[in-house]
């Protein structure tokens, strides 16, 4: 195995401490990314109003993250706009799929 890593694949031995840093970064990012859209539900009494504020926050976060992700890598505004559109589309598809699954379960009689 070591022979393959050294000579065939030209891979270095992974740094164990880096795995912990990556895991902590991902965990904190998911926590903050999941907490931001929840804030309107804590701040308002009307859940319908909070839902639309939450959707707006999520759209802004998806666009911002998508733009910055691609812009940081490719350094062009066009790449940033493509990344923003791509991230927004994936987020919308994920939200629509989740909504559809919940709607289907709720109307199938399995939820009672």
From TrEMBL:
Keyword vocabulary terms for this entry: Membrane, Transmembrane, Transmembrane helix
Recorded GO CC terms: endomembrane system
GO MF, any single term: manganese ion transmembrane transporter activity
GO BP annotations, alphabetical order: intracellular manganese ion homeostasis
Topology in the lipid bilayer: Multi-pass membrane protein
Similarity comment text for this entry: Belongs to the CCC1 family.
Stated name of the protein: Vacuolar iron transporter 1.1
Protein source organism: Penicillium subrubescens
